[in-house]
UniProtKB/TrEMBL annotation:
Zn(2+) 1 binds at residues 80, 91, 191. InterPro entries: Amidase_Cbmase (IPR010158), Bact_exopeptidase_dim_dom (IPR036264), Peptidase_M20 (IPR002933), Peptidase_M20_dimer (IPR011650). It comes from the Bacteria. Binds 2 Zn(2+) ions per subunit. Residues 212-307 form the Peptidase M20 dimerisation domain. This is Zn-dependent hydrolase. One of its GO terms (molecular function) is hydrolase activity, acting on carbon-nitrogen (but not peptide) bonds, in linear amidines. Belongs to the peptidase M20 family. Zn(2+) 2 binds at residues 91, 126, 380. Keywords: Hydrolase, Metal-binding, Zinc.
C-alpha cells in the first residue's frame, strides 16, 4: 500500500489556514475574496512545482493535471477552498489538500500511473457570499443556468455580482476547459464528515455511499391579531401557539419513523412580532433528510396528515423544494472500501447528510466520496477540527483509491 506523508500534509493544512485566518482557530474565506484568491495562488504554485498543467474554466474552477503514461481520460479529485463566515480549516480545503498530497506522493515516489490525474478546485461551494451553494458544480452539471449565477449578488457588497468577482479574480478561463465527462474517468472527493457519527463510534474513515434525499416545507399558521391585554385567552386565535402545536406534532410523529431520520424546524417568523399584539401570522420551515426514499415518503405522509386547523388557526403547508437521494458509483465505492480494508483502518459505511459538489458531479461522471472524522462533529464554525492522524488516513485511502481507479478503469 502506498502512503502519504504526515508532516507534508500537516504543513499544507497549517499553511492554508493562514488564508483568511480569524485569529480564533478558524477562517473566513468567502468565494473569490482576496483571501480565497491567495489560497488559489498557493495551490497553483505548488501544483506547478509538481509539474502539473493548470487550466481554469468559465466558472473559475481550477484543474491541475499531471500527465499519465497513456492517452486516457483523467482521474479527478478535489473539493473547494472557500469557507463560510468564521468557518473551519477542514470543510472543503481538506479535500483539496489531500488530493494535492496524493499527487505529491505519486510524483515524489514516482508511482507509475496510466491516466492523467487532476486536482480540481470548485468555485463557490458554500454559497456564503453568492447564492446558491455548489454553484459551479451545479452549472457544470446543468443544475443551474450560468446566466442566473453570474447575476447572483454578493451578500457582503451591494451591487457587486458573481460575474464581477469572476472577472476580477483572474481565474476566469474558457468554457472548453470545463470538466468533460468524455475525458474524465471518475471523481473522488474527500471531505470532513461535518457530523459527530465517526468520532462518536471511533471509526477512522467514512465510506460514503451517497447523499441523503431531503424535503423542505414551509408552514403558514394564520390567526387573528388582537390586543394582548383585552383579549381573554379563550377568544384568541394565536398563530404562534398553533405553530408550537405544529412543531410538537412533527416531533411526535416523525420520531416514530426511522432513527436515522433528521429534521429541523430552523426558521420561524412571527407577525407582527410585537409584544403587545397576539401574533396573526407565523411561518415555519421544515428540513428533513434520510437516505431511504421510503422513509422520505413517510415524512411527506406525516406532513399531509397535519391538521388543517389548530388552536382556531388555519395551518397551510407547501413544499418549498426536494431532492432525491444520490447514490454514488458502486465500483468507486468498492475501490474506497478495498483501500480502507487493505490499509487496516476502522470504517463506517454511511450517507452524507450535507450537500457536496460530488452529488452534482455524480450525474455526469462516476463519483464517490471519503469522509474524515470531525472531532465532536463541529463544522461550519471555528471549532471544526480533524486530527492530523485521521487526515493522513483519509489521504492514504484517497491515494490508493485513485491508484485502483488508474489500474481498473
Ligand atoms: Zn464543504
Amino acid at each position: 500500500m502506498y502512503k502519504c506523508d504526515l508532516d507534508r500534509l500537516s504543513e499544507k493544512i497549517k499553511t492554508f489556514s493562514k488564508f483568511g485566518d480569524t485569529g480564533n482557530g478558524g477562517i473566513t474565506r468567502l468565494s473569490l475574496s482576496d483571501e480565497a484568491l491567495a489560497a488559489r495562488e498557493e495551490f497553483c504554485e505548488r501544483l506547478k512545482k509538481l509539474g502539473a498543467n493548470i487550466v481554469t474554466d468559465d466558472m473559475a474552477n481550477i484543474y491541475a493535471t499531471i500527465p499519465g503514461s497513456e492517452n486516457l481520460p483523467a482521474i479527478l479529485s478535489g473539493s473547494h477552498l472557500d469557507s463560510v463566515r468564521q468557518g473551519g480549516n477542514y470543510d472543503g480545503v481538506l479535500g483539496v489538500l489531500s488530493a494535492m498530497e496524493a499527487v505529491e506522493t505519486i510524483v515524489t515516489d514516482k508511482i507509475p500511473h496510466r491516466h492523467p490525474i487532476t486536482v480540481a478546485v470548485w468555485t463557490n461551494e458554500e454559497g456564503a457570499r453568492f447564492e446558491p451553494a455548489m454553484m459551479s458544480s451545479g452549472v457544470l452539471c446543468g443544475k443551474f443556468k450560468k446566466e442566473d449565477m453570474l447575476n447572483s449578488e454578493a451578500k457582503d457588497i451591494p451591487g457587486y455580482y458573481f460575474k464581477d468577482a469572476l472577472q476580477k479574480s483572474g481565474y476566469k478561463g474558457s468554457e472548453e476547459n470545463r470538466m468533460n465527462p468524455e475525458k474524465t474517468a471518475g471523481l473522488v472527493e474527500l471531505h470532513a464528515e461535518q457530523g459527530p457519527v465517526l468520532d462518536a463510534e471511533n471509526k477512522e474513515v467514512g465510506i460514503v455511499e451517497g447523499v441523503c434525499g431531503m424535503v423542505n416545507y414551509e408552514f403558514t399558521m394564520r390567526g387573528q391579531a388582537d390586543h394582548a391585554g383585552t383579549f381573554p385567552m379563550k377568544y384568541r386565535k394565536d398563530a404562534l401557539y398553533a405553530c408550537a402545536k405544529v412543531i410538537d406534532y412533527l416531533h411526535e410523529n416523525l420520531d416514530k419513523l426511522d432513527e436515522e431520520l433528521v429534521y429541523t424546524t430552523g426558521k420561524i417568523s412571527a407577525h407582527p412580532n410585537i409584544h403587545t399584539i397576539i401574533p396573526d401570522e407565523v411561518k415555519l420551515t421544515l428540513d428533513s433528510r434520510h437516505k431511504d426514499p421510503k422513509v422520505m415518503e413517510q415524512v411527506v405522509e406525516v406532513i399531509k396528515n397535519l391538521p388543517e386547523s389548530l388552536e382556531k388557526c388555519t395551518v397551510e403547508k407547501k413544499e418549498a423544494w426536494a431532492r432525491d437521494t444520490v447514490y454514488f458509483n458502486k465500483k468507486l465505492v468498492g475501490f474506497v472500501e478495498d483501500s480502507v480494508k487493505e490499509l487496516g483502518y476502522t470504517y463506517k459505511k454511511m450517507y452524507s447528510g450535507a450537500g457536496h459538489d460530488a452529488q452534482y458531479m455524480c450525474d455526469a461522471i462516476p463519483t464517490t466520496m471519503i469522509f474524515v472524522p470531525s472531532v465532536e462533529g463541529h463544522s461550519h464554525c471555528e471549532l471544526e477540527y480533524s486530527t492530523p492522524e485521521n487526515c493522513l488516513k483519509g489521504a492514504n485511502v484517497l491515494l490508493n483509491t485513485l491508484l485502483k481507479m488508474d489500474e481498473e478503469l
